[in-house]
Here is the input.
Amino acid sequence: MKILTTGGAGFIGSCFIRQMLNNHPNYKIINLDCLTYCGNLSNLKDVENNPNYEFIYGNTNDKNLVRDLIKQVDCVVNFAAETHVDNSIKNPEIFIETNVSGTLNLLQACKEIGIERFVQISTDEVYGTLGKTGYFDENSPLAPNNPYSASKASADMLVRAYYKTYNLPAIITRCTNNYGPYQYPEKLIPYFISKLLKNEKVPIYGDGLNVRDWLYVYDHTSAIDIVLNKGKTGEIYNIGTNNEQTNLEIAKLILKIMNKDESYIDFVEDRLGHDKRYALSSKKIQNELNWKPKVEFNEGITQTINWYLNNQNWIEKIEKRTV
Ligand SMILES: NC(=O)c1ccc[n+]([C@@H]2O[C@H](COP(=O)([O-])OP(=O)(O)OC[C@H]3O[C@@H](n4cnc5c(N)ncnc54)[C@H](O)[C@@H]3O)[C@@H](O)[C@H]2O)c1
Here is the structure.
């Protein structure tokens, strides 16, 4: 199988490429990435000389390039996105350009050229927020609350429309918050760690009681592998683990592992439109495709924190680059 992965120099895409090259020595992967501040080729240093891997510098909005690449592959997995909610609140336009127009450009090229499978990597944020109880399933209505989630929901609608209108063999996956190595240190876990390494306080929005379901990145990428190979065309698959943690609980855990006390917590003004709780039912992917997360939260989070502590150079280098 030959796969075009977009956004593969980012956090989840780089873990996906590493895992796929390890688990499927007969697969070839082309990684199209325009290396925004989140895209980092050093995330893939260990595979850069693998003969089954090729990096192409470029943008998902580049019509000619995208067409050329799609002619060479059987499947597309679309990770490329602007991903930071705070940035989307300040500057939504680029989120529409990449997350919506970039996806449309990929879909259009796939429709014209033909493709065996298109997998759209989406997010639980498209469903909006939950109260203290309940779970979103794949039939829950879309109710995005910030420009990032609205752009992802828009892309999902386009993917659905290309399946319904043109019979494009597309699938959408919607995952919860990922954690693991190689995540850009603007996101909660690496951000807190990078702050504490500088002996600075960790800022927590509002009361810190916003709940997220944390999914280990390689459990996520193994689910994408299964969806790519066994998923049913036109379907949506939620991917979550029921590891619900408040932001405050995550902060306290990191403080404990890094031997800092709770005086390092700094409660700051809440994010605009901050969703209170996300939680998914993943029964469909578990029952129909037999996927199960393997990494238990305490083990995964400890490994992850230790990875950042052992790779402080990675954080320093990435933080020195201009955004
Ligand atoms: N990280 C999470 O917890 C999470 C949760 C749910 C869904 N997702 C989704 O998973 C996908 C990957 O997320 P991530 O955390 O790895 O993101 P990331 O920000 O770490 O990486 C995004 C990558 O996309 C590339 N990119 C951006 N615009 C591009 C363009 N126009 N053309 C080509 N490449 C471009 C960047 O250079 C970067 O390498 C995204 O679609 C995101 O919405 C992430």
